[in-house]
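S1.2 Input.
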Amino acid sequence: MNRQAGSRKMSFNDRIYVAADRICPPVVNQMVFDGAGELDLPRWRKAVEVASAANPGSRLVLKGHLGWTRWVDSGVTPRVREDDASSWDGRGSEGAPSSLFDSLPCRESPSCEVVLIRGPVPRVAFRTHHSVMDARGTLTWAEDIFRVLRNEPVIGSTWDMNDVELIKTFQTKMRTPFPTEHIPPGGKPEGDERGVVWRKRAIKGNMKLILPRCARLSAEEAWRHAEGIVRFGIAVDMRRRMPGLRSTSSLAFAFYIEVKPDSTPEMIADDIAAQVESGAEGMLSRGDQLIVHIPIALLARAGDRIIRERNKTGIYSLSGILTNVGRVDLGKFSGGGFNARAFWAVPPNNEYYPFLMVLTGYEGGFELILSMPRNQASGGRIDDVLDRIARGMEQYRKEGR
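S1.3 Output.
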């Protein structure tokens, strides 16, 4: 697999994330736990030091250029810092602590960090550059930090395999291109304001088919504004393709589902199951591998130009991205005087797609977190879209469907 001891080759997908971070930072995974209790800064710093030594994928920096770019272990412990959220309600990006808007540099430490957020509800945020880790990788690191806080032995992880190397172990087929003319759930963009905003809603209780139902409701939002094709990318954790793999690497790829006016959640679930069975998330597109030879600055300029063009037309390569991080055991994310009560995630900033929804779950409920470019979210549209989707999910739950 062309590996070099103590390093991981930068994949084309890693490169895209680094370029995207130049366009609209931060392109960062942010796993957040609401809780109760105390946040002892010295104790947390020691726990992060011990856990990061066992999970060195949290200490990576970028070395080299173009096709010779690699991630290497800096040996530097990720920082732990505090931030104030005394006047923040935790429901969206407005008024959020400044740390949640900070970029994480790739060529210098830290590419990962922990933020202790003090306020009426104490919170802990695990922040990782998306080119270094994905959601599951971030949670793997976080689990070991909490083990140290509970005086339990760490498990540790590997970090030397990238997403393309993993794909080559189970998939050889290439993806068939589809038309890139999709309508967005928020309607056409208004104005030219740049940047991203996000909102979240908590829903009590558990339900089946959470992702297919969210896809159906999101598609209905798009059809409120226009007729057209609705297709979502579904992010998939590929670790299950290699049983026993415990890695912090960024190992999530996507397959794509088209939601049609007559699609039911059950039909969408069947489509997802069939694509998972076939390993569709591992199908690369022709030309993907050439991206590793393109300078990051050039990728960023090209991406920014595409974003501006799509803002003019209101037609996109996808209607959006849906990510189900899954249900976590909050007991694994408690310790050191902190007891987790809820789990949610802030999506990495992304103007390339008009809609990005993350779903997270825990005992007693789940969270919907929606991110949209500012010109899609304007005029209260992001609140309207998320409120209708949340009400639809509540209705599904009440009906037991």
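S1.4 Remarks. Residues 1 and 110 are 27 Å apart (CA to CA).
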